[in-house]
């Protein structure tokens, strides 16, 4: 049996450790030690050949700098987000530590709460190294159908941007604007994230498939999504600080909104939904913001 190490025992790391244990011998580690099966130290886990990293995007660069030692490990990145302080994508951050041929990115619709109950889904392993994608794909359990793709940047942007649209969709729901408004917002969100990703050479098919439309439809239409719940909080007039405190888990859409806002300014890009989500996170009344992009 292949040995795999999962780094980050939050919601997603724990669900992936559970799922991968159908076909592999799985070990797990985290910043906060836990009394759970196969929990080992970071030092021990870094000796394994295959690693899955599931810590929040905003923490990745400092975590790598302080903790990671490259030793030819093959990495599957399970985080979804863009670094707020620098606007860097995760593949750019990891590039300093792991060569292209040894890194892959996971994408597609995947609420941890469903994966941990063995409910079915379909996911994509994205890597420039097709052999590596195929290897990681083979480790997934029978209840998860896996596909592979070489569109790393497309999958990464889709997974990060859909969290921003999910915040907007939560606001739409919280303000009781109705299903028409919600569908309009989600489809315009898909166009916006696709247009943004084309700037970076992403492929069209990524956006009509699991990584784009698949994950967007999931996250932007369910209260199970933390990002959607951030939107509900904004609609109730709460500040982002209050919302984050109440949530108690990561909502990557917040940091990603700030990253997109800065990238849009720097590159003069038209990202109307991301811009209004930014304004609302900064305190603009959601009625004002929503009328900016929904009213004619
Ligand atoms: N939950 C989901 O359904 C899905 C989540 N994702 C993505 O996976 C990533 C993780 O999400 P999720 O597991 O849900 O988040 P959680 O908030 O549940 O857990 C995050 C984990 O990251 C660890 N962590 C936080 N900060 C640091 C740090 N500075 N250094 C080291 N470890 C740290 C924490 O470890 P500790 O608790 O030990 O302190 C924590 O357990 C996010 O990018 C998310 O978008 C992707 C698909 C599905
Ligand atoms: O990425 C996810 C599902 O694919 C999880 O979304 P949330 O972080 O909004 O809960």
Automatic annotation (TrEMBL):
Looking up Pfam families in the UniProt record yields: NAD_Gly3P_dh_C, NAD_Gly3P_dh_N
| Amino-acid positions noted as binding sn-glycerol 3-phosphate in the UniProt annotation, renumbered to this chain | 80, 108, 110, 162, 215, 225-227
Per the UniProt entry, the Enzyme Commission number(s) are: 1.1.1.94
Q: Which residues form the Glycerol-3-phosphate dehydrogenase NAD-dependent C-terminal domain?
A: 151-284
**What residues sit in the active site?**
162
Tell me the residue numbers annotated for binding substrate: 80, 226-227
Q: Which residues does the record give as NAD(+) binding sites? A: 8-13, 112, 226
Endpoints of the signal sequence? none
The record's listing under InterPro entries reads: 6-PGluconate_DH-like_C_sf, 6PGD_dom2, G3P_DH_NAD-dep, G3P_DH_NAD-dep_C, G3P_DH_NAD-dep_N, NAD(P)-bd_dom_sf
Q: Which residues form the Glycerol-3-phosphate dehydrogenase NAD-dependent N-terminal domain?
A: 33-132
This protein's GO CC annotations: cytosol
Q: Which residues bind NADPH?
A: 12, 31, 80, 112, 226, 250, 252
Q: Which compartment or compartments is the protein found in?
A: Cytoplasm
Query: Any idea which GO molecular function terms this record carries?
Result: glycerol-3-phosphate dehydrogenase [NAD(P)+] activity; NAD binding
Which superkingdom, per the lineage? Bacteria
* Known function: Catalyzes the reduction of the glycolytic intermediate dihydroxyacetone phosphate (DHAP) to sn-glycerol 3-phosphate (G3P), the key precursor for phospholipid synthesis.
The UniProt family comment states:
Belongs to the NAD-dependent glycerol-3-phosphate dehydrogenase family.
Q: Could you tell me what this protein is called?
A: Glycerol-3-phosphate dehydrogenase [NAD(P)+]
User: Which gene does this sequence derive from?
Assistant: gpsA
